[in-house]
Amino acid sequence: MKLALVLIGLCALAAADAVDDTFYKHQTQVLHLVEHIYEPISSHYEDLIYIKKTYDPLQHLDLFKDGEQVKHFVHDVTHGKFLAHDEIFNIFHPQHRRQMIYLFEILYGAKDFDTFFNMAVWARDHMSPRMFLYAFSVAVLHRADCKGITLPPAYEITPDMFLTTDVMRKAYQAKMTAQKTVIPMKFTGSIKNPEQRVAYFGEDIGINSHHSHWHMDFPFWWKRSYDITKDRRGELFFYMHHQMVNRFDAERLSNFLPQVEPLDWHHEIEEGFAPAAMYFNGQEFPMRPDGMHFHDLPWFTVKDTEEYEDRIRDIIAKGYVKAKDGHVVFLNGTEGIDVLGLVVESLDHDFNSHYFGRLHLNAHVLLSKITDPEQKFGTPPGVMEHFETATRDPAFFRLHKHIDNLFKMHKEMLSPYTKEELDFPGVIVDAVKVVGKSEDSTANQIVTFFDESHINLGNMWAHTPEKVGIEVTTKRLNHESFKYVITATADKDTEGIVRIFLSPTYNWFGQEITLQDGHWGVIEMDRFPVKLTAGENVITRSGKKSVVTIDEPMSFAEIHKAVADKDATHFHKEFRHCGFPHRLLVPKGRPEGMHYKLMVVITDYHKDVVVPDMDVEHMDKLQSVGYCGVMEGKIPDGKPMGFPFDRPVPCEETFITKNMKFVDITVKTRV
Ligand SMILES: [Cu+2]
User: Active-site residues: which are they?
Assistant: First the structure.
């Protein structure tokens, strides 16, 4: 009887997640709508043309959550009160953001898919392309009836936001002359600029795409009045950026560069940056020469930003913050980091937002507008004002190191974990090994290399003759596949969570990094639940399954093909597209090998998991929960992100309990 119930439960789950013909229809419609985004709706999509010609939102006001809002919106858009078609949409610009939110709320509040889609076609036809695209994408990611719909990678929808001007020009020439072309894209800068050694990381199209997707899954302007409450979104903001900075530092180390220095409001920014990129309307992304200083902007000053920051430091030092209703929230527990994340990212929160200002947003804008603070020359926004271009600028990591130091200050004030909190009595990690893909691979060695990625530009312009292939190739960091083999002994049948981290063994000076110094810089590799039986257990886990990364996203062409073939293996309603590119999981290393410590910790599943009825199998299926949490409900792992390395480690010897094992590994790069 019990088994039968379980089977029925599983079937119901599978049926709810399965995709059907309606899904394929909707997926196709979404694809059509984001093609050739800068051009009018293309005549070869009859479905879209029909909607464009026949749909009038004002005739269907009852099909929206707030019909009045739709009425005002249509009026404002059709009376030229919105951003013009050829102006650059900038999410950091308050007016642009307000307009985008206006559209988002209408799309999100449409009562059925057809109303949502018809309205989206109307908006696509009347609005600035990237403003439309942003609101539409966030709506697709959050609407219940869009679950499982795959958006093509951002670098195929708006390649101009990812590629350099020379590449875009060559591609356009190829389109005009209808010539099949493969264009290699180089990283910006020259050998004279030491930062160029790590440009492959900041300019990687995957990392930029990840960053922009993350900020669409967790928009900073998200209101709690929307139906979806995002669990630990402040902590996720901290942790995802913290890990990006740690990853960048690891790349720097392998390229003989010191750790990234935090920005200082009163110190010059030594490194300039020239994006060598152009917006769709022909305006160039501004470059920043070496040695620039921050300047006040007409609408906020450097001093304002410092004051906001001082207030944040003040609550960190005090260890509490007062909510708007007067009640005191203590920061010295595990939830403190989430509160700080909310305040720093200026999310919709319970605290006095005027008092704390918009530290993270202002910092991005101050950096972006540094060369034309008064807007005397009408310079367009810099790369720092778009999530899909920000990481190209090395100063992005400097800014985030500065912000990360606030979180560090908070964590350093927490008491170190006790032996009871660290240990998992009865469980011993006996051995850890990293095994490469081939039989004869060297144990405990991971090999990285650069491969080539092909980006199809066929989507950029309508009416590109079918057979003309226009592609761009870029170099990307990658690694050979590997697996972890962990041997653990348990004194009884039990369940645990395996947490795997990587930490460089030596610093830039060649000194061994102690855990006291190095705990904050560790890189999370994986986190997964296991069932342990009494006695010895051998746990094998492929590096590919990492909970912080996702596989290569499907291209436009691949999604089209999967839809045409009705290939359900590519579509799943619970599938997440947020996550760090898997290729970048392992830092580059050096040709002669670079030493790292691989740290494995097994903790008690029953103490850690906070979602009732969350069994090991289900938790193991959650993808990219590491950086991207969950879209609905609670993140199952209740431990602070980065546990147990997030708090100070006063003494390495007492910190390392029997449920942990640290081994030396080498990361070698193939040349
Ligand atoms: Cu970000």
Answer: 345
